[in-house]
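Lab meeting, action items carried over

1. Structure of the six-component assembly. Owner: GW. Status: complete.
Input record:
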Amino acid sequence: MSDHRGGPVRSEAARVAILEATARLFAERGYDHLTMEGVAAEAGVAKQTIYRWWPSKGALVSDCLLEGRLMPERLSIPTGGVLRDDLVQWLSDIHRVMAAPGGDALVRSLIAAATENVEIGRRLHESLGAASSLTERLQTAIDAGQLRADAPLDEIGEALIGAVLLRALSRSPADADGIERLVDVVLGS
Amino acid sequence: MSDHRGGPVRSEAARVAILEATARLFAERGYDHLTMEGVAAEAGVAKQTIYRWWPSKGALVSDCLLEGRLMPERLSIPTGGVLRDDLVQWLSDIHRVMAAPGGDALVRSLIAAATENVEIGRRLHESLGAASSLTERLQTAIDAGQLRADAPLDEIGEALIGAVLLRALSRSPADADGIERLVDVVLGS
Amino acid sequence: MSDHRGGPVRSEAARVAILEATARLFAERGYDHLTMEGVAAEAGVAKQTIYRWWPSKGALVSDCLLEGRLMPERLSIPTGGVLRDDLVQWLSDIHRVMAAPGGDALVRSLIAAATENVEIGRRLHESLGAASSLTERLQTAIDAGQLRADAPLDEIGEALIGAVLLRALSRSPADADGIERLVDVVLGS
Amino acid sequence: MSDHRGGPVRSEAARVAILEATARLFAERGYDHLTMEGVAAEAGVAKQTIYRWWPSKGALVSDCLLEGRLMPERLSIPTGGVLRDDLVQWLSDIHRVMAAPGGDALVRSLIAAATENVEIGRRLHESLGAASSLTERLQTAIDAGQLRADAPLDEIGEALIGAVLLRALSRSPADADGIERLVDVVLGS
DNA sequence: GCGTAAACGAGACGGTACGTCGTGTCTTGAT
DNA sequence: ATCAAGACACGACGTACCGTCTCGTTTACGC
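Predicted assembly:
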């Protein structure tokens, strides 16, 4: 099926070592202070091997994000209970991650990466659950009669995620009450 | 009163030239590709003169933001009419700016700057009207009976501004309907 | 006799392609800017095929020299006439080659190659006719009574060839008179 | 007199450190294996500081040669005695240097450098005494009646120096007899 | 014919060095 | 004292080759 006619094949060991090194250094130093040279050294790899497969730092970080190496956990949205409680729980999880030492810096680094690289923006969006899980959860709520059928799911998601990002940017940690108020605002309750 | 004991005083010409050069290059190249050397050259100023008064690129951009040299217009919130219409109008203004050529890049650059520099984050927040004008406008609406008295003003503001930032990050321009739906969501209407 | 137990033998096509590519690139770019990768690409051959048969760039160039692919012509020493005239003719030939566009660069490249590689030095020596043809020609002259029988042939040869190399190094082309004077000096005439 | 209007001045310390490091590494490793990065490291200097003042490795080595940092001694031509003896003495000095450990490699490195860089060729020429001291010495001999007045000084010089270079290239050390024969050849004695 | 083993093209790999750019600090002489 | 100019040590950039190392494919012998 492939028209590859021989020749060496991409080294999986090198690929993994590079992504692992990237994730490690990203967590340690943040996006801005992440250097290709640092990644190469940490991974025990030649710089050229990185540039052969990734055109830029952004692409590298993007792939890490895709493989789930940057976000500490999946942060999936609870599904079982009442919509409002589930959303509050989910946002609390996110804020807990951000409240951990270096947690907000990590999110800010991801935002910085997203400003440079379209793909990172898109994947960050997805990783935060917005594009997929969140709208799914809201749809479930509609089916369960907990949300009006004509509720604008996308806009609700954007408002929630956007508020989270804004908090990360302005370094103002949210408290439990703030999270509840936010959820109430977007749910109109 | 002053303990200044001779020698020239800070050159206003240099100060202005630096800020103007910074704003110009910021608009041209974005925050990441803005360099101190570039600013010095563009302003016809020695690097040391920049470092004497600003500790970092972030501080420089922060001051530009403070003097309103980075945002194309004030983007102030209309005050006269019905709250929903005013907010829609305001968000439309913001999106119009972002839809202009280079407009979204400029906003993303500001976000990038905010990830690096607390002060920029704070001032960006303000410039977008959130901290001051927006809450003021919402308070006016409460006084006019257009909004419930116990509406969580801060959270409404965060949801709106956050959604705007998220759109800038994910490069997905909003349409008029989307804006209206967003406003309706946060106003619970 | 051979312990070869099957498998293809060395590809003559590859061998020739490599030597031709080497000669071509040597003439184009000189010894220093000749690269193994360039030769492989130009010859349409894998790098390993070069390294399988030649240990180094020097060995490769040395073989080219041996096969007469680098020197434009044989530059053999005329034999028929009076010794002085024959030598003058021979040196004039050499200088004509060096005066041609790129001719002196080629000789300098050969010298550079000789500084790196013993074998090249030896073969360059031979190619220039010193070791063999020149001393033969001088011996002929002795037999013909045109040169004293105890004339130090080796030193005469070294003086002539050395002067040529020196001219190549210092980029000072010789004129006809200079050549005649040089021959007169070493012949003591 | 100078139109230098302020600003830092070239650091003599850096200049000397660079030239010293160059000379040291040249002697250790030869021209080919001399690297700008190595020089920078050895000199405790930034690469940019080298590139600011020298365009290339060749220029750097050329300056070293000019300041007499590469040649072990001056190798000046004896002046007092009989021409033939003085020349023999001088060539013996040169060959003694070349016979020392690394001596021939150093000369070959200088030749390699000369093939790359015109200036080095010229200065090597001078350093070996050819252009100046040698012709002066020969002129003195003419004045003293030890050499014919119409002897072609330049060609004599070229023959001598050229023979030396050729020996360096072909790695064939000269013996005392060979030197005497060479001098006799060019002097016609 | 049928393994088998060497040579081949392609090219990925860990490295070293390249020459350039930007950083933040510094020194100099003029204003 | 502040300024324009710019040299400096440092660190990262992205590229070019190095020489070694797999990969499949292509021969050409010996069985």
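2. GW to write a short summary for the group page. Key points so far: Residues 12-29 of chain D form the longest helix (18 residues). Chain D has a mean pLDDT of 90.
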